[in-house]
């Protein structure tokens, strides 16, 4: 069974005002006093963010337990210096992001200007193990049409600088401003993939391979493919669902590759439109169906994703729980819907953040 690891980026906020606080260095210093924190929590581009990474897990229940534990540990470290953590993909309240200045981030700030200084967004990245780069690239080619559905399921960033963005996942729209971000054309082989990456680095537009921000990419550090399309999820169970579906997509794609079934030939232009529609709609309106690239109800598209990867889910023992979590999301909504309902009920973005802090620490 393939292993899965999750990286979550959390927002550091003031527990009273709900405003983001640039305290990641202090939180990391506190975490490093404990040996367990040294290989779990990491600095990110902005000082208002804290990232953690789970260990590779084959059992999704164990992955869920680790995500919950890491969130609680992050909350404990943050609370020790007077702030809190929230699983929010953008700040509901206005913020002036503070860039973490090391050599790498300084180069990025000089190269990309205002993009870096506005790019305070929190994602959920999922690593799924593969046997080789060749298998990994075959997977990348075959999962492309389904990635927008993961964005829709995870959408958790409706607000931007104190206003409703009209998007479910505005984070994904902000992320697209990086020059290397977004969907990719078909590669066909690992050799072509690596040559494409080398050519992109050679332009000088990006610093190195670490700045290849494809929607799905081969990891530099691990023998995995890395899914990068999801918002950080308000509910830890949603994060586990995204990880579960990512693994099932990899299993399904690898099987198709071994059976010499060609990947869908959708153009990057259509994939961009599908990604935009998913970011805009979340689960509340129509999405572009990954097979036809025509509008279809979000519930239909999500159900068809479950059917597409159903055999892999069943083989991994994940089918029942995936169905249950999907049903809960379709009934009660993803993070974007929850945040909007909280604002409608309380009339206060500060109260939205306060409740999201509570949910982050309690899940």
TrEMBL record:
Keywords, A to Z, come to:
ATP-binding, Ligase, Nucleotide-binding
Name the domain of life this protein comes from.
Bacteria
Q: Which GO terms describe its molecular function?
A: ligase activity
> What Enzyme Commission number(s) does the record list for this chain?
6.3.2.2
Q: Which InterPro entries match?
A: GCL_type2/YbdK_subfam, GCS2, Gln_synth/guanido_kin_cat_dom, YbdK
What SUPFAM superfamilies does the record tag this protein with? Glutamine synthetase/guanido kinase
EC class of the enzyme, as a word: ligase
The reply to whether ATP-binding figures as a keyword in the UniProt entry is yes
Catalytically driven reaction(s): L-cysteine + L-glutamate + ATP = gamma-L-glutamyl-L-cysteine + ADP + phosphate + H(+)
Does Kinase count among this protein's keywords? Answer: no
NCBIfam families reported in the protein's UniProt record: gshA_cyan_rel, PRK13517.1-1
Checking HAMAP family in the record gives: Glu_cys_ligase_2
Summarizing the function annotation, the protein's role is:
ATP-dependent carboxylate-amine ligase which exhibits weak glutamate--cysteine ligase activity.
Q: Which family does it belong to?
A: Belongs to the glutamate--cysteine ligase type 2 family. YbdK subfamily.
**What is the name listed in the Swiss-Prot or TrEMBL entry for this protein?**
Putative glutamate--cysteine ligase 2
């Amino acid at each position: 069974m393939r292993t899965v690891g999750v990286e979550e980026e959390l927002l550091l906020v003031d527990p009273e005002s709900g405003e983001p606080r640039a305290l990641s260095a202090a939180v990391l210093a506190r975490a490093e006093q404990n040996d367990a924190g040294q290989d779990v929590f990491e600095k990110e581009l902005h000082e208002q963010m804290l990232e953690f990474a789970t260990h590779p897990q084959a059992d999704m229940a164990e992955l869920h337990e680790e995500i919950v534990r890491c969130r609680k540990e992050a909350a404990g470290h943050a609370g020790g210096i007077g702030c809190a953590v929230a699983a929010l993909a953008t700040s509901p309240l206005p913020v002036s992001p503070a860039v973490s200045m090391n050599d790498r981030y300084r180069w990025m700030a000089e190269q990309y200007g205002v993009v870096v200084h506005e790019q305070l967004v929190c994602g959920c990245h999922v690593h799924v193990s593969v046997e080789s780069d060749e298998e990994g690239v075959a997977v990348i080619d075959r999962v492309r049409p389904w990635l927008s559905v993961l964005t829709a399921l995870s959408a958790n960033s409706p607000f931007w600088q104190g206003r409703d963005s009209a998007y479910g996942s505005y984070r994904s729209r902000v992320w697209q401003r990086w020059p290397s971000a977004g969907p990719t054309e078909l590669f066909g082989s690992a050799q072509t993939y690596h040559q494409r990456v080398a050519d992109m680095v050679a332009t000088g537009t990006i610093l190195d391979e670490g700045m290849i921000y494809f929607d799905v990419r081969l990891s530099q550090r691990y023998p995995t493919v890395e899914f990068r399309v999801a918002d950080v999820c308000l509910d830890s169970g949603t994060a586990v669902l995204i990880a579960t579906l990512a693994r099932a997509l990899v299993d399904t794609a690898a099987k198709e590759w071994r059976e010499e079934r060609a990947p869908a030939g959708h153009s990057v232009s259509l994939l961009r439109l599908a990604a935009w529609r998913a970011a805009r709609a979340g689960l509340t309106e129509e999405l572009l169906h990954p097979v036809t690239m025509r509008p279809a109800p979000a519930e239909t598209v999500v159900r068809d994703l479950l059917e597409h990867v159903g055999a892999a889910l069943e083989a991994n023992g994940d089918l029942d729980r995936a169905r249950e979590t999907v049903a809960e999301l379709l009934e009660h909504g993803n993070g974007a819907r929850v945040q909007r309902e909280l604002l409608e009920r309380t009339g206060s973005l500060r109260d939205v953040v306060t409740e999201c802090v509570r949910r982050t620490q309690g899940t």
